[in-house]
Amino acid sequence: MKNLNLQKLKELNNRYVVNVIQEAIQLCKPAKVTVITDSKEDIAYLRDAALNNGEEKKLKMEGHTIHFDGYHDQGRDKANTRYLLSEDVNWGIKVNSIEKDKGLKEINSFFDGSMAGKEMLVRFFSLGPTNSVFSLKALQITDSAYVAHSEDILYRSAYEDFKELKGSPDFFFFLHSAGRLENGVSANIDKRRMYIDLDENKVYSVNNQYAGNSLGLKKLAFRLAIKKANEEGWLAEHMFIMGVHGPNGRISYFTGAYPSACGKTSTAMISGQTVVGDDIAYLKKIDGVIRAINMESGIFGIIHSVNSEDDPVIYQALVTPGEVIFSNVLINNGVPYWEGMKKDIPNKGSNFSGEWSEGKKDSQGKEIPCSHKNARYTLRLNELKNVDSKANDPDGVPIKAIFYGGRDSDTTIPIVESLTWAHGVFLGATVESETTAATLGTRGVRKHNPMANLDFISVPLGTYIENHLKFTNDLKVIPKIYATNYFLKNEAGKYVNEKMDKRVWLLWAEGRVCSEFEAVETPVGLIPKYEDLRTLFVRELNKDYAKAEYLQQFSLRVTKYLEKMERMIKIFENIEMPAAFTEELKAQNERLKLAKAKYGEETISPFKFLDI
Ligand code: SPV
Ligand code: MN
User: Fold this and answer.
1) What is the pLDDT of residue 612?
2) Is residue 12 lining ligand 1, measured as CB closer than 6 Å?
3) For position 3, what pLDDT does the model report?
4) How many CB atoms lie within 10 A of CB 458?
């Protein structure tokens, strides 16, 4: 290590920091080690490093670059993401784990010499705004300048803040190596591993580049944060945070949890509203109010179907000079193209499969699209016109409502308000969603996904839900909870809503938290009145909203709901859950059974509940 780098480490005055770096150097054997501080020069160095080592290439537009992940490294690899555990655990959910010594031995053998001839980059970050009671500190070591650059866009640099640790080991540690590169992408995908040590707050990730696998600070840190939150009585959630703008300049802050690629970013980006964060929120109780921060400062978003009509704000940022990393899109003549951009797409260029031309097939004879379904953009939130003025507030924003949603084509209605907080926790805990391209594996399979957080829950499910149930103790204001479903289809297999309709659901909920609308009580919760939605459709979208549409969208598919309850009863039968949750499940099932007996129908019109 050069003197200057040593000096930068010395100034932190933290032997734990020095120890983990020394161990990583001994194991990975880099040709060079560079410590990156918060200085402009250091950050510029890193940006150039990604271009010099070929992980990123410049595009035509100023500040834009392209990065490709390997053909088989296009999403989170759940199977090879494991907890390092010293003993067997029963968390009530599928836990992917490996015996700690065995796992460490295996992954260390992959790390051994993995940085030979390469540069090791050392970076310091804050998860959340600096100088905030919410925030955590994180140390990232990587040989991928793309990873270090992405984290620069997505998180807050915090070398200076590490000095405030005053020598304590209270930070998360992430070691990553992309492994051997071939044409700029990780070559040994069969040896891709992401191992998480919850006891020591350390994560090891090797032979990969896709951000969900490689960036310690994203979903790997999230798993560590969930455990910490559960021990300390706060919440770390897979949630957006947004300012919802009601009439007369009123702003109510909402959070919302959705599985990957199921509408989380698109809700946070609904036009007329402001965004605080789109992926991971930390929630704490402060002076009797739930407040939340975005632990990130950028967006790693899905680019598929981003276009000037549906996502005007993001689209604008993607066609304006500024710091943007595109990944796994099509590049032709230095210009990025992707499916669903509503523009003419050239019939050749380079993409995640290498040189591409229309009609190119994979080894199974399947046509390779111009861009991957999980292709992404990485940009700073402050590149967006709709960033909320409190996005970096160390005190966070006060939360008035929480949304939960899944990709459910046949059962749950577009929006429902919970009867109580406990019922809302129940609604979140019973989210079901069809799998998407954000993770490797089959798409379109219905899966139970509590709080849209199944992939990341790092404590027993019962403990996690209990933590939610008791979160409102001592609160002055209890947020309302909503379950949404943007993906309901009719019998002909057609979506019953248009993309933009979610703006109406959002503004209805905003009215509700400000005591503006009445609601109709149904067995599954409180639903909007037709008249209110009709007013909102005109106000927000300038659209007529017919009774027939309301009827199609809000009729209670009671048989389908009962089938869902059967699935839930089966799942939760074998899980140790808090009594309050079990009661909610029982009560929900009873209410549905009663309604079915009373009306004797498969599907009950929402107007029927008006007369109760
Ligand atoms: C998600 O898959 O939930 C994402 C992208 O937000 S990543 O976790 O980075 O794969
Ligand atoms: Mn996510």
Assistant:
1) 56
2) no
3) 83
4) 21
Q: What is the pLDDT of residue 309?
A: 93
3-state secondary structure of 564: helix
Quote the ligand 2 centre to 574 CA distance (angstroms): 28
> Residue 219 Cα, ligand 2 centroid: separation in angstroms?
7
Q: With a 6 A CB cut-off, is 327 part of the ligand 1 pocket?
A: no
Residue 76 CB less than 6 A away from ligand 1: yes
Question: From CA 181, how far away is CA 190, in angstroms rounded?
Answer: 13
Ligand 1: distance of its center to the CA of 144 in Å? 18
**CA–CA distances in Å: residue 102 to residues 90, 139, 197, 428:** 20, 24, 13, 36
Show which residues are catalytic: 262
* Cα–Cα distance measured from residue 475 to residue 491, given in angstroms and rounded to the nearest whole number: 44
Q: Write out residues in the chain with pLDDT < 50, as ranges.
A: none
* pLDDT tens figures, 445-465: 999 999 999 999 999 999 999
Percent helix / strand / coil, the chain, rounded to 5: 35, 25, 40
Cα 260 to ligand 2 centre (Å): 5
User: Phi-psi region for residue 496, left (φ > 0), alpha (ψ -120 to 50) or beta?
Assistant: alpha
Mind giving me the DSSP string for 122-181?
A: EEEEEESSTT-TT-EEEEEEES-HHHHHHHHHHSEE-HHHHGGGTT---SEEEEEE--SE
DSSP 220: I
Q: Which of 69, 151, 219 to mutate to test the pocket of ligand 1 (most atoms within 8 A of CB)?
A: 219
Q: Is the C-beta atom of 260 inside 6 A of ligand 1? A: yes
CA distance 337 to 334: 10
Q: Cα–Cα distances in Å, from 398 out to 237, 254, 417, 488?
A: 16, 8, 19, 31
Rounded to whole angstroms, how far apart are CA atoms 159 and 125? 7
Buried b (16+ CB within 10 A) or exposed e, 106-129: bbeebbeebbeebbbbbbbbbbbb
Q: Which residue has the tokens 């021990």?
A: 231
Beta strands, E only, 540-586: 556-557
State how far the alpha carbon of 57 is from the alpha carbons of 50, 172, 483, 491, 598, in Å.
8, 31, 42, 47, 64
